[in-house]
Structures are given as C-alpha cells and as structure tokens.
Amino acid sequence: VQIVESGGGLVQPGGSLRLSCAASGFTPHSYVIGWFRQAPGKEREGVSAISSSCGSTYYADAVKGRFTISRDNAKNPVYLQMNSLKPEEPAVYYCATSKYGLAINPYEYDYWGQGTQVTVSS
After folding, report:
1. Distance from C-alpha of 76 to C-alpha of 15, rounded to nearest angstrom
2. DSSP annotation string for 45-95
3. CA distance 3 to 113
4. What does the pLDDT read at residue 27?
5. What per-residue confidence (pLDDT) applies to 12?
6. What is the DSSP letter of 106?
7. pLDDT at 62
8. 3-state helix, strand, coil in the chain (%, to 5)
9. What's the CA gap between 108 and 103, in Å, rounded?
C-alpha cells in the first residue's frame, strides 16, 4: 500500500491551499480516506474524511465551511481544498485509509502517508 500526499507549502493567513492524496496498492470493497494534521507538540487530529463507496463526507467542527474534501472517481486522488487558513493551523497534514466507517478517529486508520507540511504565516 502506498499513500502519497502533496500540495503543502507556505500560505498567508486567509489564503488557500489544495492538498492531494494518491493511494494505491489495496482494493477493499469499501474504504474511507481521511485527512489528519499534527502540529509540533500536539496530538494528531482528524480533519476530514470521504467514503469511497458513496462519496459521503465528514468534517471536524474546526474546519467546517472552510475545507472541502473531494474526489472525481475511485481511481483519482482525494483532494482537500483548504480556504481561509488560520495562523493556528500550520501542521503536517497526513492522508490515511480506513476500512471502517466514515469517521476521523486516527486509531481506525491502517495506512498512512508521510505527510505534507502546511505553513501559515505572513
């Protein structure tokens, strides 16, 4: 299983970034792709998730209305569009897969990428 994130970088407060997650090497009937983030000294927290079977989505309260998770089809990357980024949101953003339900509990995710750094600074 290989998971590769991309799209991180430096953005000013209020700016936008789009992250991509490409997952390959596994073919479960149904799975969930989730985005997580971890800032230095803090626990990893769930950001958003999307179901491969029906496209249902889930968002953490902290990002609702600002972030959008999407995918064109089952073979394309999963995207996380992040708008109105806040100064407190710099972190390494990780993508992961889960064979469980639509949720953002990191303990339910099996395979993880290496992460992509997002820096929010003026």
Report:
1. 25
2. EEEEEEETTT--EEE-TTTTTTEEEEESSTTSPEEEEE-S--TT--EEEEE
3. 5
4. 62
5. 96
6. G
7. 96
8. 0, 50, 50
9. 8
Report the 10 Å Cβ neighbour count for 72.
Answer: 9
Tokens of 10: 């430096």
- Give the tokens for residue 62: 């902290």
Give the list of residues 6+ apart from residue 22 with CB closer than 8 angstroms, or none: 2, 3, 4, 6, 77
pLDDT of residue 101: 84
pLDDT at site 57: 95
Q: Which two tokens mark 71?
A: 């995918």
Backbone angles phi, psi at 32, to 5 degrees: -125, 140
Q: Report residues of the chain scoring pLDDT below 70.
A: 26-29, 74-75
Give the burial class of 107: count Cβ atoms within 10 A of its Cβ; 0-12 exposed, 13-18 middle, 19 or more buried.
exposed
For the record, the structure tokens of 4 come out as 């590769």
Q: What is the pLDDT of residue 40?
A: 92
